[in-house]
Design goal:
The protein is an alpha/beta fold and 412 residues long. The chain contains 15 helices and 12 strands. It has helices at 19-33, 74-92, 101-115, 127-133, 144-155, 166-174, 202-211, 233-246, 260-269, 287-291, 310-316, 327-333, 345-357, 359-376, 379-394, and strands spanning 5-10, 37-42, 53-56, 96-100, 119-123, 160-163, 183-185, 219-224, 250-255, 276-280, 296-299, 321-323.
């Protein structure tokens, strides 16, 4: 096989049907499609997928479920992940260590120093800011400054960084002082063949809606992603309460995890009844079918630093999308987004009501969103651009790309 051997570090329970995992998976698919060999080191839990070589850590006896977001238990997971990565780096002799998230970049930086293998950091947002968003770190507490200091050190470990947005690239340059020549923006992308209008027939659409308790003729708002306060889940439910009060024929399909039972209880306490359907965790390969049930999509996340990959799924499905006007959201949606006038539940509710009342006029907007996704955000193009970063990092041209031996398959 012609191509590079790539050792990816995924400090998470890969694969688990969330945005970060989707980027890891689709990048790996795109790279494999270009002839490269990809091995992924990750936590013990997770779904094996697509026949990739996935190496997992030993289990933690006291922690058997998946980790989502910030957690003190991730320190233990990462202490098991680091020796696994070193072991596989010595066995597989990869050309590149491709590290996701800050924990992965820290582990990758240590292994890179020990082995001399070049490190690429796949940056998806500020670690300290994410911890604040998750209420895991107090911005006024004693641990914030040390965490920000560590993040800055990690950001300077690799000689090449790819970011999921231009906003993230500016953050690295302006806040963390990373030299611009090290940074390449390669946005989240979408598979336009998988996510497309017409993925189910009109008859299937009605039947699937009815199986969820949603009338076939109802106006339906869809959301797909993590359920958490920093993702805007509570805010969305409160906005839904206002929408349903004004438009009794409106329904909400909220797909994702964790905390499903708590948010279902909150939905009932708000009096939403059957108008808010929370499915829980939804397999990634089922996402297009369920998104196809919607008339419009919503992205209520209020974070200013994290990526917004779910927008691309909405766009590829030709769904008009209501989202707060952040730099990242505007980067994807441009002038085609439906932006609330205020970044709160009242503003979100008003934007949703206006969109639901004007569904017929929004059909061309959905079509233009899909066209934008296909033209600008294809994973095949992302794979080519990542490959170019590898070549710059290795200091070689595409014409002189190595033809490696088959990577070793002995166990880890």
């Amino acid at each position: 096989m012609t191509g590079y051997r790539i050792l990816m570090i995924a400090p998470t329970s890969f694969f688990s049907d969330t945005g970060c995992h989707v980027r890891i998976l689709e990048e790996a698919r795109a790279l494999r499609g270009r002839g490269h060999w990809v091995s992924i080191c990750t936590y013990r839990k997770g779904q094996d997928i697509d026949g990739f070589d996935i190496r997992r850590t030993l289990p933690l006896p006291w922690r058997q479920h998946y980790e989502v977001g910030s957690s003190r238990h991730k320190l233990a997971y990462d202490s098991l992940l680091a020796p696994l990565v070193l072991q596989q780096a010595l066995r597989q002799r990869p050309h590149i260590i491709h590290a996701h998230l800050h924990e992965g970049a820290l582990i990758g930086g240590l292994v890179s120093r020990l082995t001399g293998i070049p490190l690429l950091f796949d940056f998806q947002g500020s670690a300290a800011s994410e911890m604040v968003d998750h209420h895991f770190l107090n911005p006024n507490g004693p641990w914030y400054r040390p965490m920000a200091w560590l993040e800055r050190r990690i950001d300077h470990l690799p000689r090449a960084i790819i970011t999921s947005s231009h906003n993230a690239a500016a953050l690295l340059r302006n806040q963390f002082g990373v030299p611009p020549e090290r940074i390449t923006t390669i946005p989240d992308c979408v598979n336009g063949e998988t996510f497309r209008p017409g993925v189910i027939t009109p008859e299937e659409r009605v039947a699937l809606r009815q199986s969820l308790g949603i009338p076939g003729e109802a106006s339906l708002v869809v959301y797909l992603g993590l359920l958490a306060e920093h993702q805007g889940t509570g805010l969305l439910l409160r906005a839904a309460q206002q929408v349903v009060r004004e438009l009794p024929g409106a329904y909400f399909l909220i797909m994702g995890y964790p905390g499903v039972e708590a948010y279902r209880a909150y939905s009932q306490a708000l009096g939403l009844g059957d108008h808010a359907v929370l499915t829980g965790r939804l397999p990634y390969d089922q996402a297009p079918r369920y998104l196809a049930l919607g008339d419009i999509a919503v992205a209520p996340k209020v974070s200013l630093t994290e990526g917004a990959g779910k927008l691309l799924n909405y766009m590829a499905m030709a769904l008009p999308t209501v989202a707060f006007e952040t730099v990242v959201n505007r980067e994807y949606l441009a002038d085609l987004g439906i932006y609330p006038k205020s970044a709160d539940e009242r503003g979100l509710a008003e934007a949703l009501v206006q969109a639901l009342r004007g569904l017929a006029s929004l059909k061309p907007v959905g079509e233009r969103l899909r066209q934008r996704a296909l033209e600008r955000y294809a994973w095949s193009d992302a794979g080519r651009r990542i490959e170019a970063v590898y070549e710059r990092l290795l200091g070689i041209s595409a014409a002189s790309r190595p033809q490696p031996e088959s990577a070793r398959s002995d166990g880890g």
